Amino acid sequence: MKGRIAAVALVSFAAALLAGPGGAAAQAGPHTAQPYPSRPIKIIVPFGPGSGADSNPRFYGEFVSRTLGQPIVVENRPGGSGVTAALAVKGQPADGYTLFVGTNSPITVNPVVMKDLPYDPIKDFRGVFLFGLTPVAFVVGSGTPYKTIADLVQATRNSPNPLPVGTYSAGYEIVAAWLGAATGIRLTNVPYKGLSQTVTDLAGNQVPFAAIDFSSIVPLVKDGRLRALAQTGEARMAQLPDVPTMKESGYPEIVSHVWSSIMVRSETPDAIVDKLHEAFKAAWLTPEARNYQAGRPTVEALHAPREMQAFVVSEYERFKTVARAAGIQPR
User: Fold this and answer.
1) pLDDT at 331 over 90
2) Which residue has the higher pLDDT, 327 or 84?
């Protein structure tokens, strides 16, 4: 009997040792801290494939994967002008394994135009890497008679009906409404879920006019499927040098850019954020990336993570001003 008690006590003592903070079981347990990253990383894109927000994570993700030694998986979650994707990221742990392609739509436009937004863009997310700034393009199908913004404005003023304008996020809707306010023409927003359907309807004359990310329409303008009337940058872009700015078109106040970035949950540790930033920065500086950037109408803006918060706040204030000028109220 004494031997059995001694054996049980010995087993209990061994189990306690293994279960303790320094025990072997604790060292090998499921909650053991491992160097980041130790498994695949997912990047969630708030718009469909082919959009401006979609191309950057797919291109740079390959280089980041090599640097970090883990696969990068890009997942499209379109819907609700980015709300669907934002909530998907917010619902995941703040451990750096679920990244968000934060763009002006879900981060700085939605809080201006949406009531009861189910997330707080500034409090819930923090910046990792900013890919750059791109102007908005005002585009028509090549079969329309419009060659300039002036043509479009004049035709709309002479029509008893408002001009339908295709957009696929609230950000483009705001810029299109700003155009209407500045020119005095009436516009009717036609919302799309993504770029592909917008372009299809433009080319097929199902919608006569659209506000689109400039980088997405360069090849479509070059091959004659679309015609860009103007863009909202500070200067002409080398990729389509014949497309004037809105300043040149007689509307100097209409200067606006879209942007995309990599973001994470705000509670993500600094060390992980910094490691991700350095990996994306290294990808950005590769010769392959430089060639990729040369073909895209993007103004570089390599904000460090801590600088991105100030950038996001300033963009939010800018869109509040734009929405006020366009007469857009939260809904």
Assistant:
1) no
2) 84
Q: What is the mean pLDDT of residues 121-134?
A: 93
Q: Give me the pLDDT at residue 75, please.
A: 97
Domain 41-133+258-326 part of CATH 3.40.190.150: yes
Closest listed residue to residue 57, CA positions, set 279, 306, 303: 279
Question: What DSSP string describes 27-94?
Answer: HHSTT---PSPSS-EEEEESS-TTSHHHHHHHHHHHHHHHHHTS-EEEEE---GGGHHHHHHHHTS-S
Q: Note whether 102 and 261 are within 8 A (CB).
A: yes
- Sequential DSSP letters for 167-228: ESSHHHHHHHHHHHHHHT--EEEEE-SSHHHHHHHHHTTSSSEEEEEHHHHHHHHHTTSEEE
Per-residue pLDDT averaged across 32-42, rounded? 89
Range(s) for CATH 3.40.190.10 in the chain? 135-231
Tell which residue, 139, 134, 135, 153, has the closest CA to residue 228: 139
What is the pLDDT of the chain when averaged over all its residues? Answer: 87
Q: Are strands 98-103 and 257-265 parallel, antiparallel or unpaired?
A: antiparallel
Rounded mean pLDDT, 138-161: 95
In 3D, which of 176, 215, 220 has the Cα closest to residue 201? 220
CATH number of 135-231: 3.40.190.10
Q: Give the H or E element holding residue 99.
A: strand 98-103
Token output for 21: 């903070």
Residue 215's pLDDT is 84
Residue with tokens 């850019």: 257
The rounded distance, in Å, linking the Cα atoms of 239 and 26 is 58
Question: Residue 81 pLDDT more than 50?
Answer: yes
Q: In the chain, list all ranges with CATH 3.40.190.150.
A: 41-133+258-326
